[in-house]
Amino acid sequence: MIYCINPDCPNPQNPNRQTYCISCGIKLLPILRSRYSAKEVLKDFQRQSMVDPGLKTIFTSSTRRKFLTLAGLSIVAVSIYGGPIYGVQSSTNLQTFNFETVTVDVEGKITKRQSHQAKFFSEDLGSGAILEMILVPGGRFDMGSPNTEVGCDRDEWPQHNVNISPFFMSKYKVTQSQWEAVMGNNPSNFKGAQRPIENISWNDAVAFCQKLTQKTGKHYRLSSEAEWEYACRAGTKTPFYFGETIAPNLVNYDGNYPYGSAPKGLDRGQTTDVGIFPPNAFGLYDMHGNLWEWCSDGYHSNYNGAPNDGSSWKTPTDNFRVQRGGCWKNDAVYCRTAIRKWNFAGFHNSYIGFRLALAFP
What is the pLDDT of residue 47? Predict the structure, then answer.
């Protein structure tokens, strides 16, 4: 039996192998097979709240996600035609970690700190190298930048709405210890076990994914460009997930060239260990700066005709591949969430690395 995720569906039960709900027409998700419907979960939670008065029962779309979490279930966020977020998945094989995010003002000063949780699983790569994969909830977002954003470029237009299915993304850029455990070498210029691997090409990154897939039996890959930007934004619409600007105490970039009203600051001139700066609201670290990250897509000069389902856009016949996020040697403007860069698939140097992605089962 498959259950429709629309809590207003008059009859959420559907036969197996059904693609669309026979009652309301919503597309059914295979990950929700044999699970409760969102309506049933909320009913269970309401009953639980009668026993535990510490649980709140204000059932609105904005707080629905919090209620399901309090009920002891992990959330897979699925946006239904731009409406509320629904969906439940068992957390049997996932762990939880707590972290804090920060928000800054236009001068880069921290104005807000907020506690979050994320779900993840760990992969032992051998030689003491552990890979952590964060569950990125699905949803919809506007990809690209508005033409009013300072420093924006034509290849970030037009903004377009994209639907992203849940997937896993590595908590950090792939580190040198992880690379060595899988590939047996280390081409990095700036050596350090917990520094990100660099001086690797797109072809090298794909080869790593293939070898890791053989090693673990899981289909590791590069993220699509749309997945990358969605994961970086983590629900934000500002130039950076920190807010309107960044500062060198939050991101590794050339602090001599700040963004907006932020003052000048430190230029480290090299990579830093992963995870030393605050993460975004999904629990992902260093999505801005440190190293550019290869994505699976071919490069297009704008978003006209881009897919709206989060898939990789690979139509060009040339060998240009997309990079996102900026690096240690860049001005702050080149570390914006929407910034795009390209290079040949065989190109490598000390400011390019990558991050892993994995489809949700």
Answer: 43
